Amino acid sequence: MNVSPIRSKSLRKIPSKVDLFFLSNPPVYQSLKRVISRELTITGDTLVDEFFTPMISWIYSEIEREVNAHAASAHRAEFMIKELSTFARVNSQFLKRASHSVEGFCPEFAHELMRNFLEEGGDRGNLPAHYVLYSGALIKDLDLFVNGYVPQAASSRLLLWMHDIVVTSHCPSTILGGYYATEAVATAETEELRRLTDRVGQLKAGKTGADLPNLDYYYRLHLDDTHEAATLGMAVEEGHQEGIASFIRNADRYGFLMPQIVDGFLQLVGPLVDQWTELCMLTDSEESSELLWQE
């Protein structure tokens, strides 16, 4: 039977920054392939510090360069903020479901995920859920309404779908790798988001940073290691990352498997990164079309 080739227009045309990192860092690529194929045994410290951390640093440097927030139009920045908000609104429920998925295998890891869920869910009678805090801050400081926004970019919908799949995996090691990816990029993503909201504030009202008080509080809550929400000298986002990293670093103690940790990490770091790439591509294309039309 002859099978027609897949038409190119049906394929996702989003260049993978994970692949670009591997092309630029062949030793990391070869090592991770050998870990997955069980030809190389490494420690959790090596996996986190020598492979995952440099990858995320390299990729998000590229993202910062491409987004170019300080020169973005209001439309570009607001579109990105809206698309990125769609994951923020459901992250806490993913944490809760992931906790339930692993509680029979590793109660300690389930406890860490639940701790993160409770932090994201707020402090009853004191601090609202973080998404409520964030979406309210966008309204108060920027008059930007993201509640109920339906994601337009395919990568935004794919990111939600992939998380939905991974957090209910039968494999706790896959969940560990996947949620480490989610938390490991959180600081860089929050910093990039702050640059975007600062840009909107600058263009709309000539205000940035502390002059956007509600957003400033939200960002300090997550990124400031001196904030009252910080624990053990670590900001909230850093604490979440290091809390999950500890289970990779001590994988042998808890029975987690390195090949599946790597696989889970790659399953989620890809769509997390692809979302930024596609948002840049969509807004670049749209703004170029508008310029041509104006000419």
Give structural notes.
- The chain has 295 residues and is an all-alpha fold.
- The protein has helices spanning 17-24, 26-36, 44-67, 74-88, 91-102, 107-120, 130-142, 154-166, 172-184, 186-205, 213-223, 236-249, 251-254, 258-294.
- Helix 1 (17-24) packs across helix 2.
- The longest helix has 37 residues, at 258-294.
- It is globular, with a radius of gyration of 20 Å.
Summarize the entry for a quick read.
The protein has 295 residues and is mainly α. The chain has 14 helices and no strands.
Key features?
Heme Oxygenase, Chain A, single chain, 14 helices, disordered C terminus, 71% helix, mainly alpha
Helix and strand arrangement:
Layout (H helix, E strand, L loop, with lengths): L16 H8 L1 H11 L7 H24 L6 H15 L2 H12 L4 H14 L9 H13 L11 H13 L5 H13 L1 H20 L7 H11 L12 H14 L1 H4 L3 H37 L1
What's the tally of helices? Answer: 14
- Count of extended strands: 0
What's the architecture in CATH terms?
Up-down Bundle
What fraction of residues sit in β-strands? under 5%
Average predicted local confidence, pLDDT? 90
Largest sheet: none
- Total number of domains: 1
What is the CATH homology-level superfamily?
Heme oxygenase-like
N-to-C series of helices and strands? HHHHHHHHHHHHHH
Which percent range fits the helix content?
A: over 70%
| SS-derived structural category | mainly alpha
CATH class: Mainly Alpha
Rg (CA only): 20 Å
Q: Report the span from N to C terminus.
A: 51 Å
